[in-house]
Specification:
The chain has two domains: about 130 residues, no CATH class; about 100 residues, no CATH class. The protein contains seven helices and twelve strands. Strands 1-2-4-3 form a four-stranded antiparallel beta sheet, covered by helices on one side. A four-stranded parallel beta sheet has the order 8-12-5-9, covered by helices on one side. It has a four-stranded mixed beta sheet with strand order 7-6-11-10. Strand 3 and strand 4 form a beta hairpin.
């Protein structure tokens, strides 16, 4: 039975590859602002069911099974970064594939209803993107060797800031990167770079447990809605996007300001970062 289930799962992954590309737009199911995957599916009873009770029970079971399959398709399409999907990681590692399957089996039924006239049972399933257990992040994000954030540099001189800067006095609580009008694509492991291509914020700079628990960034479609970044965020404007529109690019001046202020307030370390779409 285990081999049959594995073959079935791999076939499902193969099928989803028919529509998978560098980026899958499944925003109707994946809510990046709330960090959840939610979908409603229906199930019908088999023709062998004769009583109302049998039909209802079989229809519910069928709805949940249909939901698991659709969850797998949508989870496979989630991008880890600009060009790597969950599906890619599942193919590379049997362990990761098994953890993804286990996460999907723990999906919560958050709503259900039965239509007696049509004999269809509807269930709404939900999965969290982030969290220490039974989340997509806990299944696919792996520990890496942590690296320090790069030191900011002063573009007006040849001196580098190798020690924490003197506080600007603003005591920023987080970072908001305004990417409106650029068709930003949400991913689980984005990178912020400057115009020279230097990464200033990425997975390797962060604590693994924090990334799994709350993700690297929050996404919002409202420039006035960024609770994750606190009450006094540093707001910067992206000048372009990179890697299939997943990575914001900042001017060198803004990138250096972000790094200098982080040496004081550590908002990057705490993943208090929001991208405005």
């Amino acid at each position: 039975m285990k081999k049959v289930f594995l073959i079935f799962t791999m076939l499902m992954m193969f099928c989803t590859s028919c529509f998978a590309s560098a980026y899958i737009n499944n925003d109707e199911v994946v809510d990046w602002e709330k960090g959840t995957i939610t979908l409603e599916v229906a199930g019908a009873p088999s023709s062998r069911a004769t009583t109302k009770g049998q039909k209802k029970l079989q229809a519910r079971r069928a709805a949940i099974m249909n939901g698991m399959r659709e969850l797998l398709e949508n989870v496979n399409g989630i991008n880890i970064n600009g060009n790597t999907t969950v599906q890619d990681m599942a193919f590379e590692s049997e362990t990761t594939s098994g953890m993804i399957q286990g996460t999907i089996r723990h999906a919560m039924v958050v709503a259900e209803r039965y239509d007696e006239e049509d004999e269809l049972y509807y269930v709404t399933l939900k999965l969290p993107l982030y969290g220490s257990v039974n989340s997509i992040s806990s299944a696919v994000m792996k520990p890496v060797q942590k690296e320090a954030f790069p030191n900011p540099s002063d573009n007006t001189s040849s001196n580098a800031y190798n020690t924490p800067s003197i506080s600007s006095g603003y005591n920023y609580t987080g970072l908001v990167v305004d990417c409106r009008g650029m068709n930003l694509k949400p991913v689980m492991s984005p990178v912020i770079k400057d115009t020279k291509g230097t990464p200033i914020y990425g997975y390797k700079n962060l604590d693994y447990n924090k990334v799994v628990e709350k993700g690297m960034v929050g996404y919002s479609s409202d420039i006035n809605s960024y609770s994750r970044a606190g009450s006094n965020p540093l707001v910067v404007k992206a000048v372009s996007l990179e890697n299939f529109n997943a990575y914001p690019i900042l001017t060198e001046e803004d990138a250096n300001k972000v790094l200098r202020e982080n040496q004081i307030s550590h908002f990057l370390d705490n993943t208090n970062v929001v991208f405005i779409r």
